[in-house]
Amino acid sequence: MFDCGIIVKKSGIKRADIILLLLALLVSIALFVIIRLRSAEGSYAAVFYGNDAGPVMELSLERSEPLYVLLTYNESGVDFREFSYEEWQNFTVPDTEYNVLLCSDGEIRMLESSCPDKICVKHGAISMSAENIICLPHKLVIRINGEGYNAADGVAY
Amino acid sequence: MKKTVLLGFLLALSMILSYIESLIPLSIGIPGIKPGLANLVVVILLYIYGPGEALTVNFLRIILTGFLFGSLFSVLYSAAGAVSSFLIMLVLKKSGRFSVAGVSIGGGVFHNMGQLLAAMLVVETYAPAVYLPVLIGAGAFTGFITGIVSMRVLPYVRNILR
Question: Mutate which of A8, A10, A13, A17 to disrupt the B interface (most B C-beta within 10 Å)?
C-alpha cells in the first residue's frame, strides 16, 4: 500500500501501527469537517447548568450594545445579573464562585471565571451554531443555537 | 519484595511525570489536551509485568496526583480515561498485530474518548462532543510519541525491572 519499510526495520514500528495512526488522524479530520459543514452563524446562546435538561437562560447574539452577564451559584441553582458596559465598569465582582459572559457583535465569550483552570475563558469567543464554551468546574455549558444545525439534536455526533 | 519496591519506584516516576505535565501550560482552550507522559510508565508496566500491575499503579497515580495537584473532578476524568485506555491497550496488545507504538496510539485516543464521555455524563449534554475530532487526533499523536519512547526505553529497563 505504502512503503514504510525503512521506518519498520529501524525502530520496530509495525505497518499496523502506521495504519492505526493514519486512520485515527483521518477520522479526526473527517469529524472536524462534518461538524464545520453542519454549522452556521447562530442567533442566540443557550446557557445550561448542572443536570438540567433545558437551558437556564437564553441570550440573543444580535444586539447593538454589549451585554455583560454575571452568573453566581447557590444551592438552588444559578443567579443572573445583566449589566451594560458602563454599569459593568463600576461593578466589583463578589467574593464567591462566579462566571461573567460578554455578549457583543454576534458572538459570546467567557470574560471571567473564578474556576481554577480558566479553560472557559481561554476558549475565546464563539458565534457558530453547535459551538460550545464549557466550564466543567461550574458545570456550565454555553451553546450557540438557531439559524442552522441545532446541536441539541445530537444526531451528527 | 524486590518487585514491590520497583513498582513503588515506577509509581513515584509516573507521579513526577504527571506533575511535570501539570506545569506545562497548554492554553489552547481545549480541555484534555496533554502529552500523557505518565502513559510511558503504564505501557512499560503492561509489557514488563502485566495488566494487573499496570492498572494498580495507574490508579494509585491518578488518586495520589489528583488529590495532590488536581481536584475530585480531575480524578474522575483521569479514571474514566485510564479505564478505557487500559482496555483498548490490552486488546491491541493481545491481538499481536501492533508494536508498543500502536498499542500506545490506541491508549492515547481512548484515554481522551473516555474523558470526553465522562465530561458528557457530568454536564448531561452532547456539548463536549465538538472536541471529539481534536481529541482523537491529539490522542493518536501523543500516544504515538510516548509509544516510540516506551519502545526505545523497554529493552534497557527490562533487565533492571525483572
Answer: A17
State the best of A10, A18, A20, A142 to mutate against chain B, taking most chain B CBs within 10 Å.
A20
Looking at the domain A44-148, which fold is it?
mini-chromosome maintenance (MCM) complex, domain 2 (2.60.320)
More confident residue, B30 or B78: B78
In three-state secondary structure terms, A47 is strand
pTM of the full predicted structure? 0.71
Domains present along chain B, CATH in parentheses: 2-26+35-161 (1.10.1760.20)
Tell whether the torsion through CA atoms of B32, B37, B40 and B46 is positive or negative: negative
Number of residues written out for chain A: 157
Q: Which residues of A68-94 are buried (b: 16+ CB within 10 A; e: fewer)?
A: bbbbebeeeebeeeebeeeebeeeeee
pLDDT exceeds 60 at position A150? no
Q: Quick one: average pLDDT of B8-27?
A: 85
**Cβ distance of A20 and B102 shorter than 8 Å:** yes
pLDDT in tens, B31-77: 567 888 999 999 999 999 999 999 999 999 999 988 887 778 778 88
